[in-house]
Amino acid sequence: MAQLIKLSEYVSRYEIDIYRYPSRYVRLKKERWQRLKQDWEARQKRQRLMQPWIRRDPDDPSKLRQAVSKWRKLFSSDAADDFDWELEDQSEEKTFEELKDKFRDELFRFQISWASSTVSEISQVKKSYYYDGFLRFLTQELPDTVFVMYHPVCYLKKAPVDMDVLLITPSEIWIIRHLRGSDQTIFNRESDRHWVQTKQDRKERFMNPYVDLRRMKQVLDYLLEGSDTVMPVRQAVLSMEGFIDVSKLSTKTFLYDRRTIHEFKEKLLRSSAPIKSHQLKIADKLLANSMTISSIRDNMELEEEPLDSNPENRYD
Q: What positions does the domain NERD occupy (predicted)?
């Protein structure tokens, strides 16, 4: 699950200390999953033990309370007090897949929290980011060692430039222009300047994404100029939902759509290298030259507390 180190112009934990938070993220993620899994397995065991008693007379509340009282003695009092026996079947995940989905959703919200707040500052997040399918794909399907900068605003000299997506991996940097659409959307090239988006016979012209890629590459080259760390730069035009019906115009630019998005994912998953020092340096450089808009928190928190019941507070 890739690390969202920058989201739009929001304040980020990673820009405060890029050398601390990546390893902290991995540790907290592992601890949280182990805790959720252990709790789920304990609940499943309790349910199995309860079933014979419940089946004897499921409509008699007194019999159910007797069964609960008996089986509570098998577990610690703390665990019993925290567990809502009567509502368990209605409120808890019944399958392991449901548990994993809950964890992935919780982790996604946690990543947005870290990418929009620090201990002392906070930024107002657009609600649309919580429902952004491509952002979820990047943060949930790619490895922990991939750093994601999603819609950052970087500075070219002193001028702010809107970027689309930057991925910083241990071995390379990806510049991505994402094209939004649906399974009925087809993208075609009209000219060197424009492409056309077609959906149900409706056509809409937009800027050739290769132009956007060149602009982002220019910004990246400027920010990393003179750096003692050099990594290959890959460029891609990508549509998760739609179809790109365009001949490949450059060997330096990849085209991925709904038919080939798995190839993009597999390409990044094949990189099993751990986080590298030069990767951290490049991320630090880019974060330092990105716009941040934030305000001081109303209630200052002292330190992150990973075991809070609220996902957002847990990692604050």
A: 146-236
